Amino acid sequence: MKMAVLLSGSGRTLDNFHERMEAGTLNASIQVVISNAADALGLEKAQKYGYPAFHAVDNDAINAILRDYDVELVCLAGYLKLYAPPARLQKAVLNIHPSLIPAFCGPGYYGMRVHRAVKARGVKVSGCSVHFANEVYDEGPIVVQRCVPVAEDDSPDDIAAKVFAAECEAFPEAINLVAAKGVDAFWPAG
User: Fold this and answer.
1) Do you find a cis peptide bond into 102, omega within 30 degrees of 0?
2) What is the pLDDT, as a whole number, of residue 122?
3) pLDDT of residue 190
4) DSSP type of residue 75
5) What gap in Å lies between CA 23 and CA 9, rounded to an integer?
6) Phi and psi at residue 76, in whole multiples of 5°?
7) Residue 36: what pLDDT?
8) Residue 118's pLDDT is what?
9) pLDDT value at residue 80
10) Nearest to 86 by CA among 60, 56, 113, 57
């Protein structure tokens, strides 16, 4: 899969993608990396890895950049805004969410907010969901989910670490599934 990676922060997921592509376990290539945050560490990492890297303030700016690249899949890798893709990529935006959708998802549920809510609710299992994104937060078709146990004495930081480890497995697995089956296989017919 020829991918664009959208990020807002440190680029840990970009690191994971890069390492797995180098190891030959991720059937993808990164065409471009874009961040809504000009000072995102992920942009520095992208440049270090040799990927074209850009700051873009909004959807229009992102989509203008994407016009210059041959992209089949847009991966939201810690991208903290609602993204509206161009028509040709409408069904080809893949997101990772740090909970088991439909729990702890939707507007306002991201990052440590999710893990604090998981801890406060006292759930025994959390995890991550890789899903296609649409115009509503965390509502598109789910491709892969991974569970992690939550112990009574786990802090939100402990939960976050467990979930991120699961994300590092789930996101590449989902991309490989999409590469094998095609984007349309995951969307309802019609």
Assistant:
1) yes
2) 97
3) 61
4) E
5) 24
6) -90, 105
7) 96
8) 98
9) 86
10) 60
- With left for phi above 0 and alpha for psi between -120 and 50, is residue 138 left, alpha or beta? left
The two three-digit tokens of residue 153, written as one number: 């004495």
**For position 136, what pLDDT does the model report?**
83
Distances (CA, A) of 144 to 64, 97, 138, 141, 173: 30, 11, 13, 10, 7
- Delimit the domains of the chain by residue range: 1-90, 97-168
Which CATH superfamily includes the segment(s) 97-168?
Answer: Formyl transferase, N-terminal domain (3.40.50.170)
Please tell me if the domain spanning 1-90 has the same topology as the one spanning 97-168: yes
* pLDDT at residue 138 in the model: 87
Please provide the DSSP assignment of 116-171 as one string: HHHHHHT-SEEEEEEEE--SSTT-SPEEEEEEEE--TT--HHHHHHHHHHHHHHHH
Sites in the chain below the pLDDT cut of 50: none
Q: 18, 97, 115, 131: which is the annotated catalytic residue?
A: 97
115 is catalytic: no
CATH code for the part of the protein at 1-90 = 3.40.50.170
**pTM, rounded to two decimals:** 0.95
